[in-house]
Design a protein that fits this description.
The chain has eleven helices and 18 strands. By secondary structure, the chain is α/β, with parallel strands linked by helices. The strands form four sheets. A six-stranded parallel beta sheet has the order 6-9-10-11-12-13. Strands 2-1-3-4-5 form a five-stranded parallel beta sheet, sandwiched between helices. Helix 6 packs parallel to helix 7 and helix 10 (290-303) runs parallel beside helix 11 (330-353). The radius of gyration is 22 Å and the shape is globular.
C-alpha cells in the first residue's frame, strides 16, 4: 500500500510514527509523511490526547480524513483510514461509536524503537527517545494513564541508535522522553541520565546533542556536569516548571516548591552560565488566585528565561485535579496567558538585542525565499528562535554549520550575515 502517516502532538509521537513507518516499509509498503499528499491508498493518523486543544485538533484531523476517504469510494480498492496514538488509547470506545468510517483503531502499543527508522524531520536532526511512560503523579496530567509506567531503554541500545542516526548524516540528536531526568531508575536502580549523556557525547559522533523534557524535582547533578563537560552537548535545558507559587505546586503534585525551584535555577546559572533555559508554565489552574498569578508574573520577570511557553489549564478526565473542577473562566485564563507572554516577549527582545554584533555557530535548517534559516545551539527546532541569514553563499547546504554575525534582533528571531 501507499501509506501517508500524519503525526499530531509532541516529538515523542514523531518518533513513534517513524518507528511505525520502519515496520511498514519492511513489509513492502510505500510510506510518506505529508499532510498535503494525495497519491496514497491509506492514511494513518497518530493522534495526541494531552490537552483540550490537542484533542480538538486530533478530532478535526480525523474528520477531514473521513471526508478524504468518502471522496475515494469510487476508487478500485477504496481508501483506508487508520487512527492510533494517545487519543485512541484514552477514548477508543467513544471514538469507535462516533466514527464508524475509520477502518482500524490502535492505541500506543506500536511505539517500540526500531533501528533504521525513516525520519519525518529534516535529515540533519532527529529525536532520540530514551524511555517510554512516566512515573510522575502531576495532578493535571493524563500521560501516565495513557503511556503507563516509565520504561527506560538500555544505554547500549540508545547509543547504537544514535550511531546509526549519525551515520545517516544526522548532525543534531534531541534526547527526549516523557521525563528524561527519571531515566535509569527502573532499569539500573539509579538516575543514569548523566552517564547516558557522557556515552552519547563521546561515542555517537554527533556534533550537537540537545536535552529536552527534564523535570525540576531531583534534577540529577551529573547531567548538569555532563552538559558542562562536553562541548557537543548544547548549552540548553528544557525544563517545564509549570508554576512558582508553592501552594499551586503542591496541588499540582510537582514534588518541588518555590524555594527548590529558585535553588535549581541558581544551580543551572552557576554551573552553566552560558546555557539557554526554556520552560513552560500553566495559568488558570483550579484555585489559582490573582495574587498567585501576579507572583508567577514577577517570577518570569526575575528569572528572565531565554525561551518560554504558556498554556491555559484544561481539566483532564481521570486525573487528580479533575476533582477540583475548573473554576477559572476561560476568558480569565486567556488574559493571564496573554499577560505572561507579553512579559516574556519583552525579555526575549532584550536578550536578542544583546546578541547583535556577536558571531554564533549555527546549523542551517532550510532555505526560505532569500534567506538561509539557521539556529544557534541555544535554539531547538520548531519551538525556538531562528536566525535569518542574508547574503547566501553557494555551496552552503541544509545541515551545514556556518558562522553567523548577528546584525538585527526581533522578538523571536535574529537577522545575520555569513562570515568566514
Amino acid at each position: 500500500m501507499r501509506i501517508n502517516i500524519i503525526t499530531l502532538g509532541c516529538s515523542k509521537n514523531t518518533v513513534d510514527s517513524e518507528n511505525l513507518a520502519a515496520r511498514l516499509t519492511a513489509e513492502g509498503h510505500s510510506v510518506c509523511f505529508d499532510s498535503n499528499a494525495t497519491n496514497f491508498d491509506t492514511v494513518v493518523i497518530n493522534t495526541c490526547g494531552f490537552i483540550g486543544d490537542a484533542k480538538e485538533e486530533s478530532i478535526n484531523t480525523i474528520l477531514e480524513a473521513i471526508r478524504w476517504k468518502n471522496a475515494g469510494q469510487g476508487c478500485k480498492n477504496g481508501r483506508r483510514l487508520i487512527v492510533c496514538g494517545c487519543l485512541v488509547e484514552r477514548y477508543r470506545k467513544e471514538l469507535e461509536a462516533e466514527m464508524p468510517e475509520v477502518d482500524e483503531w490502535y492505541g500506543v502499543d506500536f511505539s517500540e524503537a526500531t533501528l533504521g527508522r525513516p525520519l519525518s524531520t529534516p535529515k540533519h536532526y532527529a529525536y532520540l527517545k530514551i524511555a517510554e511512560g512516566c512515573n510522575r503523579s502531576c495532578s493535571y496530567c493524563a500521560i501516565p494513564l495513557i503511556r503507563g509506567a516509565h520504561r527506560s531503554r538500555p544505554i547500549d541500545d540508545i547509543v547504537a541508535e544514535a550511531k546509526a542516526l549519525v551515520a545517516k548524516e544526522v548532525k543534531e540528536l534531541i534526547v527526549i522522553s516523557q521525563d528524561t531526568t527519571w531515566y535509569g531508575l527502573d532499569l539500573y536502580h539509579r538516575r543514569a541520565l548523566g552517564e547516558l549523556l557522557d556515552r552519547l557525547a563521546t561515542e555517537s559522533g554527533a556534533p550537537w546533542i540537545r536535552l529536552h523534557y527534564t523535570y525540576p524535582a531531583s534534577f540529577p547533578d551529573d547531567a548538569i556536569a555532563a552538559i558542562a563537560r562536553h562541548p557537543n552537548i548544547c548549552n540548553y535545558i528544557d525544563i517545564p516548571l509549570q508554576h512558582i507559587n508553592s501552594n499551586v505546586l503542591r496541588s499540582m503534585q510537582r514534588g518541588i516548591d518555590r524555594e527548590g525551584t529558585l535553588a535549581l535555577l541558581e544551580k543551572f546559572r552557576t554551573a552553566l552560565p552560558d546555557a539557554a533555559i526554556r520552560t513552560t508554565l500553566i495559568v488558570g489552574y483550579p484555585g489559582e488566585t490573582e495574587a498567585e498569578f501576579e507572583e508567577l508574573k514577577e517570577f518570569v520577570r526575575q528569572a528572565r528565561f531565554d525561551r518560554m511557553g504558556c498554556f491555559a489549564y484544561s481539566p483532564e478526565e481521570g486525573t487528580p485535579a479533575e476533582s477540583l473542577g475548573d473554576p477559572v473562566p476561560d476568558e480569565e485564563k486567556q488574559r493571564r496567558v496573554s499577560e505572561l507572554m507579553a512579559v516574556q516577549e519583552a525579555i526575549s527582545l532584550e536578550k536578542n538585542q544583546a546578541k547583535v554584533g556577536r558571531t554564533y555557530r549555527c546549523i542551517v535548517d532550510r532555505r526560505e525565499g532569500d534567506y538561509l534559516v539557521c539556529r544557534t545551539e541555544y535554539d531547538s527546532p520548531e519551538v525556538d528562535d531562528e536566525v535569518l541569514v542574508t547574503g547566501q553563499r553557494r555551496g552552503v547546504r541544509t545541515g551545514d554549520f556556518v558562522n553567523v554575525h548577528i546584525t538585527q534582533a526581533l522578538e523571536n528571531d535574529l537577522m545575520g550575515e555569513l562570515v568566514e
